[in-house]
Inverse folding.
């Protein structure tokens, strides 16, 4: 058999959502007869307890990552494009998506200590590509199957044990959003006493960045809809700014040390203007549109640093697990759905009326 199991009664088949290609909801196939995977050497088999919904799941499905797409994520993607993935390489369909995973190890492959069976784990979404360089990534739910299923296999080195009283649903709200947020703060070297401006602050990454920047001792200005302002102030924002505000007029030019941008779009030119001389702009998303207009004179005359963030430094996810175990950050779950209702969950997610994460729960029998 080549692996050890927690018991000999694991099912031969499992329930999962198969993404059959790039496109709309019609490409999501809920199936109760998907062969259960078996862990290869140096892998573990995880029984999924919960899986969060993320922009990347939807953007990958719709083909938004294709260079042929220039609009907002809400406008969809390019269903026939071969470059519509994180890596720019064609995906192998059918694919099980689901970038966020929390569950328990129920079997281990050769080379993995059997004592790991029973561990509750979470999994980083952005992983180092096997044999790749510093910025080569391997994305859960894209280059390998993800958490929209009852079981998933994962490299043992990428299954992080977590000791916490939080529920699987709460833990599943952390991996993608919080590691993305921690990575941008790490890459920008955000320090205590600095002022950080966060776009899209009510979303998963944005609300995580509010907490994590506050944890570092920064002053946080959160951009969001007015009806979500109180929740962000409760999370640690010092003040909020409406998402339609004229930023230089609202908060002043050269007032911010770091901009964390997840939005992009037509309002983008105001972001370099609010940065102080020597400030840092960090981007890890473009939900309002990837095409922006930059006056290069602002960039070089103000000595700004621009950082694009996808690949995560090795220490980022381990640090995140430590924050969770010490109770330094808290989960923010907006709503849960059973896995069979994935279309309803992703539909609500795209309305952007929630604060925090929407989480799917696969069948637990």
């Amino acid at each position: 058999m080549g692996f050890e199991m927690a018991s000999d009664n694991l099912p031969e088949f499992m329930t999962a959502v198969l993404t059959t290609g790039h496109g709309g909801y019609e490409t999501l196939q809920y199936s109760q007869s998907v062969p259960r995977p078996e862990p290869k050497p140096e892998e573990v088999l995880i029984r999924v307890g919960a899986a969060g919904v993320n922009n990347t799941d939807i953007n990958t499905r719709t083909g938004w990552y294709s260079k042929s797409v220039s609009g907002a994520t809400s406008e969809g993607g390019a269903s026939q494009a071969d470059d519509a993935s994180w890596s720019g390489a064609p995906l192998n369909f059918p694919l099980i998506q689901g970038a966020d995973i929390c569950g328990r190890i129920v079997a281990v492959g050769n080379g993995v200590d059997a004592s790991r069976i029973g561990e509750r784990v979470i999994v980083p979404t952005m992983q180092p590509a096997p044999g790749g360089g510093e910025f080569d990534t391997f994305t859960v739910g894209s280059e390998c199957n993800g958490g929209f299923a009852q079981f998933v296999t994962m490299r043992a080195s990428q299954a992080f044990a977590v000791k916490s009283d939080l529920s699987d649903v709460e833990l599943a709200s952390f991996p993608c959003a919080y590691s993305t947020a921690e990575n941008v703060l790490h890459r920008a070297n955000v320090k205590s006493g600095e002022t950080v401006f966060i776009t899209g602050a009510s979303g998963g990454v944005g609300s995580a960045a509010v907490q994590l920047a506050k944890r570092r001792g920064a002053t946080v200005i959160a951009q969001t809809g007015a009806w979500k302002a109180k929740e962000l102030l409760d999370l640690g924002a010092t003040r909020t700014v409406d998402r339609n505000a004229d930023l230089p007029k609202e908060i002043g030019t050269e007032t911010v040390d770091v901009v964390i941008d997840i939005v992009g779009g037509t309002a983008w030119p105001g972001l370099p203007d609010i940065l102080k001389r020597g400030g840092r702009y960090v981007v890890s998303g473009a939900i309002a549109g990837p095409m922006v207009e930059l006056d290069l004179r602002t960039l070089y005359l103000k000595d700004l640093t621009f950082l694009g963030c996808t690949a995560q430094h090795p220490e980022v996810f381990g640090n995140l697990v430590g924050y969770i175990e010490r109770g330094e950050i808290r989960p923010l779950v907006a709503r849960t759905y059973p896995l069979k209702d994935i279309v309803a969950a992703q539909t609500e997610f795209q309305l952007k009326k929630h604060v925090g994460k929407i989480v799917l729960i696969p069948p637990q029998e």
User: Anything to note?
Assistant: The first strand starts at residue 3 and ends at 5. The mean pLDDT is 92. Residues 175-188 form the longest helix (14 residues).
